[in-house]
Amino acid sequence: MDTCIHRVLLTCLLFSLFSPPFVSAQVCVSETFSSNKLYASCNSLTVLGATLHWTYHPSNGTTDVAYRIQQAATGWVAWAINPKMTGMLGSNTLFAYHDSTSGVVKVVSTVINDYMPTVRDENLTFAVHNRSAEYSNGTYTIYASIQLPGNKTTQNIAWQAGTDFTGGAPGGHNLGPPNVLASTSIDFLSGASVPVPSPASDNRLRQKNIHGILNTVAWGIILPVGVLKARYIKSLNPSSPAWFHVHKTCQSIGYIIGVAGFALGLKLGSESKGITHHGHRIMAIVLFCFATIQVCFSSL
Ligand SMILES: *[C@@H]1O[C@H](CO)[C@@H](O)[C@H](O)[C@H]1NC(C)=O
Ligand SMILES: *[C@@H]1O[C@H](CO)[C@@H](O)[C@H](O)[C@H]1NC(C)=O
Ligand SMILES: *[C@@H]1O[C@H](CO)[C@@H](O)[C@H](O)[C@H]1NC(C)=O
Ligand SMILES: *[C@@H]1O[C@H](CO)[C@@H](O)[C@H](O)[C@H]1NC(C)=O
Ligand SMILES: *[C@@H]1O[C@H](CO)[C@@H](O)[C@H](O)[C@H]1NC(C)=O
């Protein structure tokens, strides 16, 4: 019993340690750039430790951007605007990496039209007036002055980093989170960042509904019914062990469904970028820990 409780308490401690911090500060504010370049706005992008700095010029619809992301010197980084849709296809992408022969940091622009793109330098669907990149302090920085497509200030952006190369040019990247979550929509005028509605969020909505249903069924119906049944049947016939079997079956089924609902909740929580429902999360973890301690006791 002692080891069981210890394990539960340890698990609870681990959850609290690895929960996201309560406030995520905009780390971008403190960043500086070579040649004392200054930008009017910045945004700490939600994943991969990337930041975007920019100055928008309403007079000619251009914006100067500086995109910074941590990456090993042997890896590549990318930043993209997708003028037509969200996702990888149609992304007008700027890549930076160390050229394998010269060793200098180079910038290459490519329009990505399939999932196995060949990265070669080509014109984008909008003008890039100026571009450069540098590597220092374990980070790549891409500088560019771009003509915002359609003269629209709100654009779908995406960013990426990887270590695979094919034929000396950037190859694939990891296909799990956080890499697949590296896109958003940014208003270069107001600075507002809006998560992109994607097929993934329909899936998220479905998972949220399943999370709700599982937890309602487990914590809201089966477990309370198990408790009521135990009290009711026991009071009808205190000598019969029937109440205990019914109770145990209900509580076991309820607990198993509850575990599934709780696990799905943790998965959803870990995937939601920068959003934490603290009250909900803490209550869920406390409730789950107490239920698990009780299961430990009753299974003795
Ligand atoms: C756009 O306007 C800004 C500010 O007036 C200027 O610094 C920049 O050079 C212009 N860019 C182009 C491509 O004309
Ligand atoms: C782009 O839009 C701004 C206002 O949002 C306008 O002042 C400017 O003239 C437009 N530029 C072009 C090239 O259409
Ligand atoms: C890219 O655009 C420039 C200027 O519009 C043009 O001179 C150049 O030929 C284009 N390059 C390619 C590969 O299409
Ligand atoms: C292009 O960028 C370089 C380096 O940031 C800068 O020295 C140069 O003046 C820029 N050129 C234009 C036309 O903006
Ligand atoms: C690299 O880090 C040093 C010290 O933290 C800092 O002074 C320098 O400005 C950084 N370089 C760039 C390009 O951010």
UniProtKB/TrEMBL annotation:
GO terms for molecular function: metal ion binding. Residues 48-162 form the DOMON domain. Residues 177-300 form the Cytochrome b561 domain. The keyword Metal-binding applies. Keywords: Electron transport, Iron, Membrane, Metal-binding, Signal, Transmembrane, Transmembrane helix, Transport. It is found in: Membrane. Coiled coil: none annotated. Its main location: membrane. Residues 1-25 form the signal peptide. Heme b binds at H211, H247, H280. PROSITE patterns: CYTOCHROME_B561, DOMON. It comes from the Eukaryota. One of its GO terms (cellular component) is membrane. It holds the Pfam family DUF568. This is Cytochrome b561 and DOMON domain-containing protein.
